[in-house]
Design brief:
alpha+beta; Alpha-Beta Plaits; 2 domains; 9-stranded mixed β-sheet; two-stranded antiparallel sheet; 11 strands; 18% helix; globular
Length: 208
């Protein structure tokens, strides 16, 4: 079969897989017929939203999932409270989560509220506590990492939307929509990932 590449806007409360679990929704419920050998590259948690890439290209999948290559993932995060620039310094230094230290991440406060579609169901907002949108860029993908990082800094996550994977952007998609990558997007993605593969250190030879 030919290689296929799809971007979807994964809605809130949907699993990043084709198999159902209980009464929740999954990728099979999208109004789109995917080839049988196409699978998501990585995942977004059920309570997270945004960009998800699906493909049957094993090389691209490997380059995106191998932590050695450190591809960028960008998230726009609504947090409880009013963090300042210094409050986000732990992101840039590397936050300790348990016994593991996260890689340094870019983090900044968004000057305007993003124009995302209303979430269904809407988030629970406490009228006595303000909320703020921040942008976080990671080069790794630990389990529920962004939520754990914001909580560690004292600003629990209310809503999390992945807006970018390397040169691939969420803009133009609505929740539940699917589209194929353009030739320009695919070429750009391969160029970025191949460039990182070339930088990976060669295995050391052991001489006897």
């Amino acid at each position: 079969m030919s290689k296929k590449y799809y971007l979807i806007y994964k809605p809130f409360n949907m699993l990043s897989q084709f198999s159902k679990e209980g009464s929740g929704t999954c990728l099979k419920d999208l109004n789109f017929s995917f080839p049988s050998d196409v699978y998501p590259v990585g995942r977004l948690d059920k309570d997270s939203e945004g960009l998800l890439l699906l493909t049957n290209d094993k090389e691209i999948t490997h380059l995106l999932l191998d932590p050695e290559f450190g591809h960028e993932r960008e998230y726009w995060v609504q947090v409880e409270g009013s963090p300042t620039y210094p409050d986000l310094q732990p992101f840039r230094s590397g936050i300790m989560l348990g016994t593991e230290k996260c890689r340094p991440a870019a983090a900044e406060i968004l000057s305007e509220t993003p124009d995302f579609p209303e979430r269904n169901p809407p988030i629970r907002v406490r009228l006595t506590i303000p909320d703020t949108w921040i942008k976080v860029i990671l080069k790794e993908g630990k389990n529920r990492q962004v939520r754990k990082m914001t909580a560690a800094c004292g600003f629990p996550t209310l809503r999390l939307v992945r807006t970018r994977i390397e040169n691939l952007f969420l803009s133009g998609l609505k929740p539940g929509e699917v589209r194929e990558l353009t030739p320009t997007e695919l070429s750009g993605l391969k160029t970025k990932l191949k460039g990182r593969e070339d930088l990976k250190p060669a295995p050391r030879r052991i001489r006897f």
